[in-house]
Amino acid sequence: QEGHEHSLDVRARAAMRLTSAPLLLLPLERLACIPWRVSHAPRAQLVDSEVQAYWALLERAAPPTVAPTPALTLYRDTNGWCPFCERVWLQLHAKGIPFDEELINLRDKPEWYKEMVPTTLVPAIKLGSEVIWESDTIMRTLEERFPEKPLLPSGDTDEREIIEERLAGCADMLAAGARFAYGSRDSLSADEVAGRRAEFEGMLDTLEANISSTGGPFLAGADFSLLDAFYAPFLERWAVQLPLSLDFHIRQSLRWPALDGWFDAMDALPAYRQKVKGDAYSWTAAVSAFTRMFAPNGTISDESAALIKRADSAAAAAMRSMPPTEEAEVARQAALTAARKLLENREAILADATNTEAKSQTHIERLDPCDVEYVERMLREATSRLLKRASVSVEPSDEEEELPPMLSRTMAPHEAVACAQAARLVSARLCVPRDLDGLAAAELRSVLHELACEAEAFAWSGSGGLL
């Protein structure tokens, strides 16, 4: 037994200990139906031509997208973290304006963008030959040029006056929120911290009163408006991140019931929920990433270490508790969107998963480059299962071979571990809305969790419980 244990891949065993799914909780009936229990042909090392042929089969199976002619180009940040970009992004979807996107790396902005936009900031749009920047200016321009589905009432009405008055107060709200949220970066006395908290609470009280005075559920009444698009990106982030960083809860608070109803109304808005809203996992993981990223001189204090631990734990819990999409057609479309994303980006995903010099989320362990075959196997299986969820048939022609399963009888346990680790890694690296919208990400994470559990069960069984 001792000799057998030492013959196993040590790195693989360590990786298994890091995964979050308890193997013994996998039901026995689930173990009985996973693919590796079916007899398969002996596994041979795949050559590149075979791999390309399998991906070509998946690409041919996925129905092509039909996109309307874009009316403009939106320039936004690569990571999907900029709340000012999200404002415009949400407005475009709510108004149904078709658009192209150019993603701008904020750490290394291209020269052409800095020459095009005097402020060099995002967002910006290009409408014909006209370039417009600053989110406020962009959004008002869009209301003027695309009046078919207005998010601002016409001028000289009481409704317009109310919205304009509340838009004018948005900057004060955001400033108070920033002072409160990031106060720990300053050397503040207890009284100063309490003062910032009280200031922010007062702003939320005003928001609560405003919603109540116009009947809700949105910020200016019964309908979604430009006002909601202005506030949503910030309230979305605060609702997830402030409970972690400052034990401050906006949602489900007896003090702000109308505001809680606003969150529910926004979640029911397809342009928001299905397109631009970040999910709980992504905003929680961002707390951990930002705390590491902005540590003074790279030194993480005890307080920051405790926050990172809370954020990582909450992110793992959020990953496990993602509810499935209930509407069948919406779920089908979400699965198809996720499958297309894997087909489009598989080379980038393979590179990230085996990048030994990663620049972001460096605390998430990547796979060894020699394990790229197992990352590819996992991605191929995930794509196939997503297409099946989308009711897309993956049928080879008479000249083509069927897609091989991710796992086979001849696979060594440590190879299955690599497949499982790859699935967990891709799930952890998936950021909403940077990479996918929330519904498509939920479908993809569901498939990745399924694959990780199957591969971990394979490894556990094949190693006699040692892995």
TrEMBL record:
Taxonomy, superkingdom: Eukaryota
InterPro entries referenced in this protein's UniProt entry, alphabetically: Glutathione-S-Trfase_C-like, Glutathione-S-Trfase_C_sf, Glutathione_S-Trfase, Glutathione_S-Trfase_N, GST_Omega/HSP26, Thioredoxin-like_sf
Cellular component GO terms held in the UniProt record: cytoplasm
CDD domains xref list: GST_N_family
Residue ranges constituting the GST C-terminal domain according to the UniProt record: 156-290
Domain spans labelled GST N-terminal: 70-150
Protein name in the entry: GST N-terminal domain-containing protein
Organism of derivation: Coccolithus braarudii
